[in-house]
Amino acid sequence: MVKSGRTSGVTYGVVRRVDVLTKIDYGEGYGEQNIGGFEIGPDPSRDETMELSEGGDSGAVWMFRSGNGRTSRVMAGLHFAGDAGGGAESAIACLPASVFEKLDISLSPTTYETVRAEAAAAPGHGYDAGFLGDDVALPTLSADLAKDIAPVKDGGEVVHHTHFSLTMSASRRLARWVAWNIDGESLKKLSRSSIKFQLDPQIEAEHQMGDEVYKANDLDRGHLARRADLTWGPRAEAQQANEDSFYFTNISPQINSFNQSSRGGLWGRLEDAVYDEVEVDRLRLSVFGGPVFHDDDREYRGVRIPREFWKVLAYTTDGQLTAKAFLLTQNLDQLETLDLQEFKTYQVTLDELSERTGVQFAPALAEQPVPEGLTEPRVVETSGDVAW
Fold first, then answer.
1. % of residues, the chain, pLDDT over 70
2. Residue 14: what are its φ and ψ, rounded to 5°?
3. Which of 12, 82, 117, 188 has the smallest number of Cβ neighbours within 10 A?
4. Domains plus CATH for the chain?
5. Which residues pair with 149 in a beta bridge?
6. What's residue 177's pLDDT?
């Protein structure tokens, strides 16, 4: 084998032992850690007195050599540590696969694209009803609203994307509801740069509100299922969810000061508040949200802009399923000038939310007791601007 270290330069070695476990004490806060790998000794066909490892060599790649002595294209391991001087010279290298697994990375573009393609094509890969352990099924619609569901091209009524699902209103060209899962333990911070908003291939274009309503004004393309909520799991899967979130089926027109998280992120912080107030089991939530449609919603460029949005957070604490429902109202005085006059956030009961929206929630949520003291809508005290 051969490596080129930052300090030691080009050195040659042979594998002495496999499945070596090295114990290292990293001090306060980390303690003793076990590092797996294999042991390397000097290549007897070379200078056996050469240093295999010096400070700064960590991370150098050990490559296998072929029978003719040439360096192959096969990676043997990543240099980890070596002797500090004295005794027989030796070094320890970590197996690439174990390092890549820990970092959740791959050097193979084909593998990465394959994982994403599998995530996009997997049947039922959207919202997971059993995510919390209890069966929290997708919402349904009242009989009248069910007549307005925009058909999915495969013949169904529900659109499934990575980590979220939704049902569209044909008349309003927006989602009636979106349902998604959040795995807080495996969230990834991914960039949104270069990702474009686009029409959803699962729904006919005539049933979607595209870019025509957003040009040359202060309306934002507001995510209903928050982009940052969806980017969890293996990196390739998280990236697929990142891109899926930009389909127009997951978007609703919102005043920019209402939508942009850089202005405070109040609406998005409703979920964060759950983490602050209670110990959410395994940092997992199931969330439902969408716009509230009214016949007198202000018309703008031929479409009616929702002035209310709702969100339901479902989670477990100590094995007990809990649900909280919220309603946010923005009063638009003159939509033509896009003035956000006032907004308020209310905590409401699921029954009231169903009455307002026509969205009916899973029995597992409907059976939960009404929060103590919540006999009527309660204003949630907040500060700053809001973000959906």
1. 77
2. -135, 155
3. 117
4. 2-103 (2.40.10), 109-379 (3.40.570.10)
5. 169
6. 98
